[in-house]
Write a structure and sequence with these properties.
By secondary structure, this protein is an all-alpha fold. The chain is about 70% helix and about 0% strand. The chain starts with 6 loop residues before the first helix and ends in an 8-residue tail after the last helix. One of its GO terms (biological process) is sodium ion transmembrane transport. Belongs to the sodium:neurotransmitter symporter (SNF) (TC 2.A.22) family. Pfam families: SNF.
């Protein structure tokens, strides 16, 4: 239904406090802030991981479909509605309809919960950055055991890189039920991360705008340096072939389509409320359609651009492991068949192996040679944090000048994380200020400090020995289903409650032209339908299988392979709670508003003239 009132009338009736709202210094500052918010850590490790998991180039197909028919339409809506109404998420959806007020609360809750674990990742980045100045790098070699008779057993079974991550950094427990103690070094890093965020964010867009020039541009400089360097590494071509060679069979797997949709919303920060907050500080006469296309393009471009050096390094690492495996086999064959050293080389290994296997197969079988397959090493993936703190750090130690590469890499990650944290906090702060529930005598600096202090206190759970397990839960359950539901109701609210014709009028007033048929078709039909199908499919697929997690357990019989364990019942309940808690405000607020309306209706029926004396 279309709500009465044109864009011109709304402009004339605009409240004075909204008209005097702070604005960005210039359009470039606004665009860079939006790009920095959407181009975050998810573009550098989550996107490449999903590409690797789902057969390289095949994942790009559902990803681009989700981008075109779900991501861009909602991105345009968020930038346009925030720019037009000049409010944060709660104010925007409450002004569209009081029944949709819970939508803004849901976005605020998502931003708060995601900022908790997002800044913990920044704390890990700081920990590695501090250690990157050491020579040699501390994750290059295993430490000596207490008896000084050899290396630490856990490190020998795994690798020095894995040991530094799981034991020296996380001091991880063997399962999620064993909480462990607070790791004081992680607590200090987390406190440092929140202090840095507070300093950069202390006065909202006034300080964000100054910092964003560095935090957005620097990652592209480092990525370019890594791109040039990675392409010169041996085996880089194998990694790139793996990235761009699609495995078409994976498209039959429904999980690939669900993960593509959730990646779009998580990567582009849709449903967080941050983009609405940022656009509310933009001038109203601004081409929001152009901004949406630029931000969407830069997000996708960065994901692919970052994947090229990452897969080149993965190809390098796979070749290193592949050659190490074959060298081990060469040593066994050389000793067993009394062949002179260096007769069997990596180049002629296959010929020698086939020869021995044909002439003396029983002897070859008794050697228990390793199965060396380059494709297998390329398939070995590290999800999420593992891509940065295991795969990259292992590759760095093989590069000349490893300290320089390590420092550059972790400063890049820090810049990406910091610019995204600006949007997360803006998605919390702006709605609170727009609600006018914060007393006027509390300065914005104090309110920002209280938000950071509260977040730091709650996030201490991630500094426990079991903290990495909890971070995985937050990442999986807060950054998926809630975002899809919020996105669905955002489109429904704008198109069918605010009114698509009124929204078209607003965009024409702001940009000078009406939205074309692509926007009309996606907003009215395609996007809501696709989001509804994805939401239902996500619930069905998730309900069919009991969730598990990978535990780092040195006592596991197949260690260092992950000990896959099911979540305990109480942890599973928390998983469900984290999926429901951010969005429960949507039906609760709608029900509360309805009851208020119903009560008022009953009172009017029983006493139609309240001024009539008894």
């Amino acid at each position: 239904m279309d709500t009465p009132g044109s864009a011109e009338q709304m402009q004339d009736d605009e409240p004075k406090d909204i008209a005097e709202r702070p604005q960005w210094d210039n359009q470039l500052q606004y665009l860079l802030t939006c790009i920095g918010f959407t181009v975050g850590l998810g573009s550098v490790w989550r996107f490449p991981y999903l590409c690797q998991t789902y057969g390289g180039g095949a994942f790009l197909i559902p990803y681009f479909i989700a981008l075109v028919f779900e991501g861009l339409p909602l991105l345009h809506i968020e930038l346009a509605i925030g720019q037009r109404l000049r409010m944060g998420s709660i104010g925007v959806w409450n002004s569209i309809s009081p029944y949709m007020g819970g939508l803004g609360v849901a976005s605020l809750a998502v931003s708060f919960l995601i900022s908790l674990f997002y800044n913990m990742i920044i704390a890990w980045i700081l920990w590695y950055l501090f250690h990157s100045f050491q020579s040699p790098l501390p994750w290059r070699d295993c430490p000596i055991n207490l008896n000084h008779t050899g290396y630490v057993s856990e490190c020998e079974k795994a690798t020095a890189v894995n040991y530094f991550w799981y034991r020296e950094t996380l001091n991880i427990t063997p399962n999620i039920e064993t909480s462990g103690s607070f790791q004081w070094w992680l607590v200090l890093c987390l406190a440092t991360a929140w202090c840095l965020v507070y300093i950069c964010f202390i006065r909202g867009i006034e300080t964000i705008g100054k910092a964003i020039y560095v935090t957005v541009s620097f990652p592209y400089l480092v990525l370019t340096i890594f791109l040039i360097k990675s392409l010169t590494l041996p085996g880089a071509t194998d990694g790139l072939i793996y990235l761009f060679t699609p495995d078409w069979e994976t498209l039959k797997n429904p999980d690939v389509w669900l993960d593509a949709s959730t990646q779009i919303f998580f990567s582009m920060c849709l449903g967080f409320g941050g983009l609405i907050a940022f656009s509310s500080y933009s001038v109203q006469k601004n081409n929001c359609e152009r901004d949406a296309l630029i931000v969407g393009f830069m997000n996708t471009f960065t994901s692919i651009y970052a994947s090229i050096p990452i897969f080149a390094i993965l190809g390098f690492k796979a070749n290193e492991n592949f050659n190490k495996c074959r060298n081990w086999n060469i040593l066994r064959l050389t000793n067993s068949f009394n062949i002179g050293n260096e007769n069997i080389t990596l180049e002629n290994y296959d010929d020698w192996f086939n020869h021995f296997n044909h002439t003396d197969p029983s002897e070859v079988e008794s050697l228990n040679l390793k199965t060396c397959n380059l494709q297998t090493f390329l398939d070995e993936s590290a999800s999420g944090t593992g891509l940065a703190f295991i795969v990259f750090t292992e590759a760095v130690i093989h590069m000349p000048g490893s300290q320089v590469w390590a420092v550059l890499f972790f400063i890049m990650l820090f810049s990406l994380g910091l610019s995204s944290m600006f949007g997360n906090l803006e998605g919390i702060l702006t709605p609170l200020l727009d609600l006018n529930i914060i007393p006027a005598w509390i300065p914005k600096e104090v309110l920002t400090g209280l938000i950071c202090l509260t977040s730091f206190t709650v996030a201490l759970i991630f500094t426990l020995g079991s903290g990495n397990y909890w971070l995985g839960i937050f990442n999986n359950y807060v950054g998926s289903m809630p975002l899809l539901i919020i996105a669905f109701f955002e489109i429904i609210s704008v198109v069918y409650i605010y009114g698509i014709n009124r929204f078209n009028d607003d965009i024409e007033w702001m940009t000078g032209k009406r939205p074309n048929i692509y926007w009309q078709a996606t907003w009215r039909f395609i996007s809501p339908l696709m989001l509804l199908v994805v939401c239902v499919a996500y619930v069905v697929v998730t309900a069919e299988k009991r969730p598990t997690y990978n535990a780092w357990n040195p006592d596991y019989v197949n260690f260092p392979l992950a000990d896959v364990q099911p979540y305990p019942e109480w942890v599973y309940a928390i998983c469900v709670l984290l999926s429901v808690l951010p969005i429960v405000s949507i039906p609760l607020v709608a029900f509360y508003r309805f009851m208020g309306f119903f009560k008022k209706y009953i009172m009017n029926r029983t006493n139609p003239n309240p001024y009539q004396k008894e």
